[in-house]
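User: These chains co-purify. Model them together.
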Amino acid sequence: MALFAEIRRRNVLKVALLYLVAGWLVLRIADVGVTSHGWPEWVEKFLLLVVAVGFPVALSFAWFYEITPSGLKKAVDVDQTQSIVYKTGQKLNAAVAVLLVLGLAAVIADLFLPDFEFLIPEPEQGDPPLSAKSPDEIRTHTLPNGLRIIVWPDHDIPNVVMYNFVRAGSRNEYPGITGLSHFFEHMMFNGTAKRAQGEFDREMTSAGGENNAYTSNDVTVYMDWFPRTALKVVFDLEADRFANLRIEPEVVETERGAVQSERRLRVDNNNFMRLREQVRATAFVAHPYQFPVIGWPSDIDAWTQDDLVTFYRTYYAPNNCTLVVTGDVKPVEIFKLAEEFFGQIPAQKPPAAVRTVEPEQKGPRRVLIETDAQTPLLHMAFHGGSATDPETLPITVLLNILVGGDSSRLHRILVEDEQLAIAVGGFQDEGFDPGLLYFYAVLPPDGDPDQVETRMLEELARVATENVSAAEFEKARNIILADFWRGLATIRGKASALGNFETFNGSYEKLFELPDDVRALSLDQLRDAASKVFRRANMTVGVLRAPAPVDKADD
Amino acid sequence: MMRVAFRLAPAAALLLTAVSAMATEVTLPPYQRLELDNGTVLLLSEKHDVPLIGVYAVLRGGAISDPEGLSGVASLFAALLEKGAGERDAAAFAEAVESVGGRLAASGGLETITISGDFLADHAELMVELLADMLRRPALDAVEMEKLRDRRMNFIRAAKDSNLNALVPIYGDAMLFGEHPYGNPVSGSETTLANIDIEHIKEYYENHIGADRLVIAVSGDFDAASISEMLARAFADWRPAATEVREVIAPEPLRGRTVLLVDKPGATQTYFRLANVGVALGYPRRAELNIANTAFGGNFSSMLNTELRMKSGLTYGVSSGFARHKKRGSFAISSFTRTDATVEAIDKALAVLAELHSTALDATTIDTARNYILGQLPTILETAPQLARLIARLEVFGLDASYINDYGPAITAASVESVAEVIAEVYPTPDNLVIVLLGDAELIRDSIAKYGPVTEISITEPYFRLPPAEGEEPADPAK
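Assistant: Joint model of the two components:
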């Protein structure tokens, strides 16, 4: 007990308390500096180390030394009657109080003062409104080299999603290099000046991350899903392959094999995709949307080193991309990391615009594939709009009414009531240029493609001449609204939605206008869009079936 | 303008985050569990991030209870639940779900029947009504059944035209598990479906569907008290199933090698699967197993992908995986390659499997797999439907929260030695495999004979496994 009394007398406890409060403040400041103001991470670790190491030092100091009117002396040398430890103790108490008040004031300010740029509010509690508005916590920033960055913080799980939307797709290709955008997507995993083949994935995986990529007619999108702790690693990896890709001739040869295998899987040994490829190639005669994204086999075998190098330089430029980050991040730290890793990559001359406009189709086109098939296929495509054309949203609604689920018109008629098909479906391209509105039916083995075509056309004519019912319209609106929310339930969904709207609709904010835009449509607008698109002269029909038995009547 | 912000976080928490940078812990969020007198279990968990409500209802049983020679009954029964229930016929039922933007789908699995869906939060009551109608008052209409059955037979034919990769595991399990219930194709074959009539479906409903087998998990934007009251009212007086859940014995790994060659003339690629019996759902060392499999064939930088894709360009994709059923399941390596490279690719896969056994995974490889699993772990519980599915399945398979809560720590604790032990215990060696190849038989028949005795069937045959020879009684593994 005597020892404890002496510890108290020498103010060791008060020093400890003061030290802890001060240390907490210092570390909080460092944390904020690192996460919100881009201080290097080592600052925080260094200060933590200093504070931790300093603690026993400070305590020992308090124990061994005393402040006296004549300066600092060893405690054992101080005449107890002259000791002013009591006064020192009062000063220490005052210091603790001041620091606590400071800390508390900062906390209160944080909680109650209006938000400044660096402070991201927590998402509001309670039900999100059914009519969405662009959440305030989304932030954007554009680097001097043109790289646009969109950040949507969401701290639900300690993970992050980063999508890089590169504006390069099969629409940027021409005969001889069809499939190059997609092939390039593969090459982006195959080594850089700094990293050997395979390193990208190994480093990403070691940091807890997962990645993939896809290519479409319009864009190539690189996707990373990773824990917050891997932020820096992922930025390093992405910027490295973006700036320093190595296009090794032997690796190109190996990768051709992988892509040919992918083509066999997805197209050559898949009747459905074989027909789709042919219908697309028939529907477009001029615009590069005629090319299959994976490329024609002879091009996969033949593109050259020069083609690859030119493509990389042209399209993998910061001013040709949008970087979307969602999840457990703060916008400012992302902007800082983007600046650090992507900031030095020079902008390039913007890629040449796709000039070709598909001439208007003036009559139905047909394509037939005769092959081994137990179940015949019927596909039907119409030229539609681009993502921003006025007919696109009404057609989205009509697609729901025609093929969206078991209660949709074409499913009811073709699959349930008349049993002419075993499955029907449809989708719409929503790209930079006017694309296709696509329907398909899978037929039973004895099915008649002509009959399905006739019934399908009758139903399409019906939505082009008569308004759909108010109940059907309401149903389609509800499906679109529910899908909107389903899409925003994950940080992946958020990244994908933001990136797509930013890329194709001109602004990510348009995403949040979707529910209202759909609600604002009229029945007449739906019918007008249908009559504009669903015309025989605007149609390409594809049939795939087994060859007809050879006619032996002449033998 | 510079402004320093502070948050309410004790220094201790900061110290902790700084030291354990990578320790991502995932624990099951709290949820309510209610058991009705008739055995139905209700699980409820609120989550208010988006205005949706998700439901996941599971019944114990499934395709393992399909009657002999009638594979596909459970799966067809499940699909028929969407075709009319309560006062609504098939069309009205679909309309009721879709008119409010909802989703509600039933499907039959090997050991469970599942109904899952989600609705906008305003429609919770409708969701409960439809769910109760499906389970308690299904129409089980003969005409709808026949339409669905015929369509399903045609789906198999359509897959033979357009989805070869999806068929390989069905042939594979039929061959691997043989007459064991795990070998029955869950969706049936063209032959077995043709033999199913409405009486089989009704019998299945009486025998295998009932309150004692039911678990309903609801998660999302709702008030737990009111939903649980609705569910209790809807199910409290439901009857139990007429029979007990069928108990199957654990299948044993096969010794030696057998080969099934499925002939698809004109295929430009051979699809293959190398398999044997794996582990059960409750396998205690799943952390080690998942680390091993991540390194072996679980992602892009895996041993298999490095050899068959990155180094050689033989394939677009190769993977290995465990399907874990209640009493063991399958382990399989799956891939595809151009026809003339079939043997080269399979030889390589066998060599990588041999290497897995001969050379222990080193510490770096294990750390990489460990970090990968831990880093991705939080994403399994991001959404309300994910949570509903997870807690329902834990309940149905008799697992508890430790299945999730202890997984992260077990991944962290796995060592070079413990992973090596699990590899030796679980992974088949290259000479004990059931090999299925789907491709152009004429071009590969001779060269693949070296892998073992070959059975060959045409892809147009209406079954996934050769019927037992005349006079040969199939063994009942339940006895």
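Chain A touches chain B through 104 residues (CB under 8 Å).
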